Structures are given as structure tokens and as C-alpha cells.
Amino acid sequence: MALELVLGILTFLAVAALLGILIYQLMCLSDLEFDYINPFDSASRINKLVVPEIALHVGLSCLYLVFGYWLIFLINVPLIYYHGRLYLEHRHLVDVTEIFTSLNREKMYRLIKLAFYILLFFLAIYRLVEASVHALLDNEHA
């Protein structure tokens, strides 16, 4: 049970980090839209976080797979596939020269991912609370 509690804490922290990265990317796109930042700075800030976001999401999904949370892993598979396809086609980075033409598409893509990560965040909170309750009940009986 202590292992599930550690997994719950790691999952919660990883999903919180994913949400933070995604919100930062959305803020950069919004700043670009309102002309608070130039396209080069916006693209470089976003591109700096794309690969770590993908790596963190794949790592989190691998944790789910290793610990036997098949349903949550299967929920993550479509986004992993999409990230992998973008990465293999070299379309995962924001292009500085095309950022204004693809601004609405990039924002919509990130808003959909935000909804997905919020779902994962609530699942992580549920798993963390469940593991904490089980750990407390096991300590009382021991």
C-alpha cells in the first residue's frame, strides 16, 4: 500500500507539472495574440517545453502501465499516439514563420490537451486520496 501512495504522489506531481507547462504555453500564445510578445520569443518559449512535456506524459503513462492501471493507461494512449506522430513527422515544434497563421489551431490543440490533463488531474487526486485512505486503514489494523 505504501507503494501505491508513492505512485499517487508521483502521479499528482507529474500531472500538476503537465498542467503548468500547458498553461504556460497557452499564456505565451495569448501574449502573442495580443501583441505583448514577438513571435520568435513566443515560439522559443513554447518549443523549449514541448519535448519535456511529451517525455513527462510518456513517463507517466509508463508508470500506469508498470503498476497495472490499465484503464488510465488506455485513456492516455490516444494522446501518446498523437504526440508520437507529431514528433516523427517533425511537426511537434511551433514554427516562427507560420505562428500567426496557425495561432488558432495551436490554441485549440492546447485547450483540448488542457481538458484532457484536467481529467487526468482529477483521476490523480482520486487515486491519491484512495491510496491515502487505504494506507491509513492498514496502519490502524497493524
Automatic annotation (TrEMBL):
Its main location: membrane. It is found in: Membrane. Keywords: Membrane, Transmembrane, Transmembrane helix. InterPro entries: Cornichon. Pfam families: Cornichon. It is a multi-pass membrane protein. The keyword Ribosomal protein does not apply. It comes from the Eukaryota. The chain crosses the membrane at residues 54-82, 111-129. Belongs to the cornichon family. PANTHER family: CORNICHON-RELATED. This is Cornichon. It comes from Sphagnum jensenii.
